[in-house]
Queue: 2 jobs
Job 1
Amino acid sequence: MTDDILVADGLTKHFPLMAGFPFKRRIGAVQAVDGIDLAVRSGESFGLVGESGCGKSTTGRLLTRLLEPTAGRIRYRGEDITHAGRKELAPIRSEIQMIFQDPYASLNPRQTVGRIVAGPMEINGIAPRGGREARVRELLEVVGLNPEHYNRFPHEFSGGQRQRIGIARALALEPKVIVADEPVSALDVSIQAQVVNLLRTLQGELGIAFVFIAHDLAVVRHFSQRVAVMYLGKIVEVGGRDDIYRHPRHPYTHALLSAVPEPLDAADTSPEGTVRERIRLAGDVPSPVSPPSGCRFRTRCWKAADRCATEEPPLVRAAGSAEGHLSACHFPEPPTVARDTEVVLDPALRP
Ligand SMILES: Nc1ncnc2c1ncn2[C@@H]1O[C@H](COP(=O)(O)OP(=O)(O)OP(=O)(O)O)[C@@H](O)[C@H]1O
């Protein structure tokens, strides 16, 4: 018996690449997401991390069925919803909600907060006991806004408050899963923590499963019980938060972690508790139109060998890793990372 609520198997999205004039024709495909497997458990917070363009947003939109996958499957509570039509999707759509990065762009400027938050209830014909207005006021309170601001417009609120409005709207249908796509990256750093804390409270109190998309590991660390790291359309590592932060096995995770400035856990005094290597990856992320053969990370990896160009490493549990901690590397990092090691990579040393 599994408590997985939202599962992706081999999930793939290739956007057609068109060129030519006056008649456009397909000249290739952007391999935004390429055969990823992931399982989000009921009530958990699952972080999805990676650099810009690695396919996080596309994954979020596929999971919420805002985008049609090119291949693969999505299951919600055991039911295959990959190709579910509008009618079959309607009840599921209310249970899987999305919060977007830009709180302003995602709120209709001509609607009052009351109407915005009530919108999903209207669309789905839901009439809560006590009426929609009372429910909206309650939701505004839940997200830390003044219910008396019911008749105000989005421009009258700060960025953090607007994101709270977006969160209230996402909560209106009592979702079981919320996919939050970079929900705090457009906000001031001082406000970010408040919004993350709100999401954490909601996850704890309402038992909502969260897929929290972020480009850096620092934000996800405060919120996620499990974390998946993406690179160029693939998941390269997934595992419990502590496994990922303290014992990263994939070189890319290692490099991402080295950008986290502060100690990973101030309270942790174990020798492996803090990772402080400074790894500067050489070069840019390759194009998702023609990704490298074999391991997609190999062109930037200091460990790359011949095998990496010909054999794609499977996402598996490396020797010495905890259960459920999987990585996709032929030469995983040692199981325990020494404290305060300084790794300065010389691009000239790369194969
Ligand atoms: N509608 C589209 N048509 C063509 N290519 C697309 C489309 N949407 C995304 N892409 C491409 O797919 C790749 C993955 O994009 P995606 O937005 O999922 O990445 P991301 O990791 O969320 O990045 P960011 O943090 O910058 O949003 C990128 O190369 C992007 O340019």
Note: The first strand starts at residue 4 and ends at 19.
Job 2
Amino acid sequence: MSSIARDPLGTDRVPVGPGLSMFDPMFVGIDEFGEAVFLDVVYRNLLAAGEPGGGKSGLLNLAAGTAALCDNTRLVLFDAKWVELGPWRHIADEFVGRDLDHAISVLRRLVTVADNRYQWLLAHERRKVNRYDDLSVIVTIIDELAMYSTVLGTKPQQEEFESLLRGLVSLGRACGMPVIAATQRPSWDIIPASLRDLFGFRAAFRCTSLNSSNIILGQGWAEQGYNAADISPTNQGAAYLLAEGGLPRRVKAAYLSDADIYAIADYAAWLRRPTTAAFDWGMAA
Ligand SMILES: Nc1ncnc2c1ncn2[C@@H]1O[C@H](COP(=O)(O)OP(=O)(O)OP(=O)(O)O)[C@@H](O)[C@H]1O
């Protein structure tokens, strides 16, 4: 399976609207040849990292917007700054702000759901869920990982957060629970290799050093020319995108303005409104 998928329709059309599924490739932007770039994010996870202002939140909002418009897809959001993912809070199952206890309890619940899904898979003699299962995709999006793992709360709480996150990131891939996370601190204490390597997709936005770029993409890529420190500070939204097993690819993420984000969030809330169709059609009795 191609890890950075082409448009399944064979054109440059971007699928939107009702009927869209998280099992469809997610549009993220264009590559240096102007080709549309899509990610099969549901069976992998996505990590975005780079210096402040590089465009990570833009990518996270793109993912949130896609998830918001997808059928049978639920959102769980962590945003210690409130405003980055805040526009989606009304349609999220959970929105976690600057509260590490809340973050831990939500992660515990997610890991329990993942465990239950594996029991379900075992009982059905399967190894992963697919679009035809009647299971929702639960997309967890975390903006600024470092706030939860190094800034808020106490050391034991931070360690518990990290270990639960590691559990979710490793379990979620096969059971329809992808994690999309961002950090502006690409350092080993925030993204140890053992956690980083659980993310099948990694996007290195502009970094301040070759070392930071390698921490995101993997040791040795910068020396081979894939160095996010070479991205111009004025080229926000540009990143090296690595899919496991592939070569990093230079991309420019699509960008949603604040007005776009709020408009999509409103539309998604309308799509997700509780339906009274059964009553409208006189079928309730
Ligand atoms: N894909 C993009 N195309 C064009 N401009 C972009 C793009 N992404 C981001 N920008 C510009 O860069 C600014 C900062 O982007 P963003 O908030 O996503 O960065 P960030 O890396 O998340 O920063 P921080 O770590 O401080 O949250 C945006 O306000 C926007 O003006």
Note: The longest strand covers residues 73-79.
